[in-house]
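Illustration 12: DUF1460 domain-containing protein.
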Amino acid sequence: MGLSAIDEWAIVSDGGQVKPVLKILFGAILFCGFAWLGWWIWQGDGETFSVMIRGEKLPEPDPARYEVLVSELERWQQELGARYQSAATDREREAIEHDARVILELVMPEMMYCWLGTGYDFNGTAEKPGEGPVACGYFVSTVIRDAGFKVNRYKLAQQPSGNIMRTFLPKAACQLKVGADYDSYVDWLEGMRPGIYLIGLDTHVGFIINEGSGIKFIHSSGSGPYGVVAQKREKATALKVSNWRMIGSFSSDAGVIRTWLRRETVKVKN
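Figure caption equivalent — predicted structure in token form:
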């Protein structure tokens, strides 16, 4: 059997014996290597390592697709808005509101996915996926603005999560639970109507996408892996550890849909 490179390096000429000092040195290198790998996995909650061993590519921001989606959604907003303005009956308007909700629920999550892999910074204000780091509030406010809502994204992003939600939703539509058991809470979320939700936590804000078969928490994470992520319930650490959770349905709220169709300016709650 042939010798490996390590074997050849370790063996010396005096009878083929390995010098003790080389054994110690090689062992130290292995120990340091595994220690570093363990720290790396811990920092990234294991996600980066699991992706690496599966041979998959990590998400990369997709600004080009984002621009296409923004443009398409603007076209739909113009078309549906014109129909809404000329509608003669409540039944016609309700049908257009339904169509608008369907379009938003199809396109907005795809816009969010374009941000995956964008880095996080507490002061990050990136306007497009991957052009720089983005804080949680700026991620939420930018996606909402680019979806066609006329809102000051800077002012909105700088508000506490409760104010961000109340900017779009009435108080009665924002459901607050404090200290709820995590698994029971997520079970409750998964039982709600499929769609796009805004969620505010102790010191964080993001989107919940209820897909009917489960949820995804899409947010700019201030902990590992430090960036925009879409996490299922098992990986959504920020959602799990938060004591304060307020949620409201963004896409099924009639006021939100009408604001979008009429292109009304949204006044930020502060």
